[in-house]
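User: I'm putting together notes for a lab meeting next week and I want to include a structural view of one of the chains we've been expressing. I don't have a solved structure, so I'd like a prediction I can at least talk through. The sequence is below, exactly as it appears in our construct file.
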Amino acid sequence: MSARRIARFWTSLRESAAYWLGGKDNLVPPRRLIDGVGGGDFTAVGREFFRYFTDIGGMKPDHRVLDVGCGCGRMAVPLIPFLSGVGEYHGFDIVPDAIKWSQRHIARKYPRFRFELADIYNKLYNNEGKIKSSEYRFAYADNFFDFTFLTSVFTHMLAGDMEHYLSEIARTLKPGGKCMINYFLLNPESKALMEQGASSIQFKHALPDCVTSDKKTPEAAVAFEESFVRQCFAKYRLNLIEPIHFGGWPGRKQQLSYQDIILAVKG
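Assistant: Thanks for the context. Below is the predicted structure for the 267-residue chain, given as structure tokens.
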């Protein structure tokens, strides 16, 4: 083992010890930040998705991971004691206050965790952003990550932007690397449940290749036809690992999570 890897190993041990000796209690952001990027129980939701990443997605302690739409670190925090000395976490988001909090309270203590601001325009979350989502290039090299995840990101993006992000996910993933992504997927089952009034969201305003629940603010909640999403994944050689884990949002009695979850591997 090289001197660099040994140093990183001991660093990870120190970070894990600091986390378990009370550090985790100081890693819950203010309520205003939590509500601004999805709300809910910050710790419980992070732990829920950590299980999905490891049990279903196969994330490993030595992986280099990317959190697209990282917010204020909800998915990062449970990874602190998990990622080993050679493992790395990278996250970016469009909400300045969320990134500032994550840099100050997480990255300063745990230098293997890095947070970057992407000044991307979004009508709902960053209406002063200067870059279009469809033109944003992820700030990472080709074939850089072992595992990429997005939680409640494509549920707030229009079709062209979503497809561009998929191309960037494919570019930055290593061959054989995996991605896990949430969606609202429209298929015969979810459409039937919406028609029955069972769904918690009604998607009824059609836009190019997607449907929104809010005509005035389309990014509030966006759904895609399952067939369209499958075509997009295939286009960028992201091979779906079946089955899709359909969520409870339309009123399903059996579900893994609230939103639909897709796992794919780069071919």
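A couple of points you could mention at the meeting. The chain has one domain: 3-266. The first strand starts at residue 64 and ends at 68.

User: Perfect, that's what I needed.
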